[in-house]
Design goal:
single chain, alpha/beta, Rossmann fold, 2 domains, six-stranded mixed β-sheet, binds adenosine-5'-triphosphate, ABC_transporter-like_ATP-bd, ABC_transporter-like_CS, ATP-binding cassette domain-containing protein, ATP binding, nucleotide-binding
């Protein structure tokens, strides 16, 4: 049974930014006799502007897959994912058109995955500024803001013009976070934002996330660091292993 826990008092007059209703997903392994693997089942939660919901649960219960489903990087089998726009409109992210989804991903919903994916020869400054430049912002102004963001996260100026592909795991993660949150968004999904970070860098990231909450941004994040999670999360949702009618072993036997 999935459980929601409220850790902090909700902001006054809070409305809902995202409502996830009874979503389920099984992965079909087409190269393994079409066996179904449980992704997650009957997951429901909501998150408000200015608050952070942490997804908790054991390994492989489907936490990352839920974030991907909200971003529609993976398709759900059933349920709905209702995104409440600032203009009052409600969009079901599981069913809206591709063009609307792309628009929302550019302007309103961000995903910070566990890995920084950039081309070689792109500098740290360019990598962080890119989401703003892609939105049509002035390049110099974007590079300036990127520098400020990197500075906030403790990346020294001497690294600004170096490719993050040569960075340490922690430095690369800081660039990943900076790049993921630099453009204005209303909902940000973070898959283990504190991964590879020492205590000092974790604190800098937590401060940054606190600032995003003050800007009324809604966030859903996965943490394996409970101390960090307790500092920033307003609510937690414990994901339990997906339940499907047949086990993988039974499917192998039947195949
Ligand atoms: N594209 C995919 N194809 C097949 N199976 C997948 C796919 N993505 C995820 N899975 C399976 O779905 C299950 C849930 O994976 P997921 O990565 O969402 O779990 P998680 O809770 O984030 O795990 P962890 O905490 O260990 O990172 C796993 O058994 C995984 O192997």
């Amino acid at each position: 049974m999935h459980t929601t826990t409220q850790l902090k008092r909700p902001p006054k007059n809070s409305t809902t930014k995202l409502e996830v209703k009874m979503i389920s997903k099984a992965f079909t392994l087409h190269n393994r006799n079409s066996i179904n693997v449980a992704g997650f089942s009957e997951v429901s939660f909501s998150v408000n502007p200015g608050s952070l919901l942490a997804l908790t649960g054991s390994c492989s219960v489907g936490k990352s897959s839920i974030l991907k489903a909200i971003f529609r990087a993976c398709l759900i089998d059933s349920g709905s994912i209702l995104f409440h726009r600032r203009n009052g409109g409600v969009v079901d992210l599981a069913r809206c058109s591709e063009s609307r989804l792309l628009h929302l991903r550019r302007r309103e919903i961000g995903l910070v995955s566990r890995f920084l994916t950039i081309s070689p020869r792109v500098t740290a400054l360019q990598a962080v500024a890119a989401p703003l430049v892609e939105l049509g912002e002035d390049e110099q102004a974007s590079l300036f803001l990127a520098g400020r963001m990197l500075d906030l996260l403790g990346i020294g100026e001497e690294l600004f013009h170096v490719s993050p592909l040569t960075f340490s795991g922690g430095e690369r993660q800081l660039v990943n976070i900076a790049r993921g949150v630099i453009a204005p968004k209303e909902l940000i999904l973070l898959d283990e934002p504190l991964i590879s970070l020492d205590d000092e860098s974790s604190d800098l990231v937590l401060n940054l996330l606190q600032g995003l909450k003050k800007k009324n941004i809604a966030m859903i994040a996965i943490f394996h660091d409970k101390v960090g999670m307790d500092q920033i999360a307003d609510n937690t949702y414990e994901v339990c292993r997906g339940v499907f009618p047949t086990t993988v072993e039974a499917q192998w036997e039947a195949a």
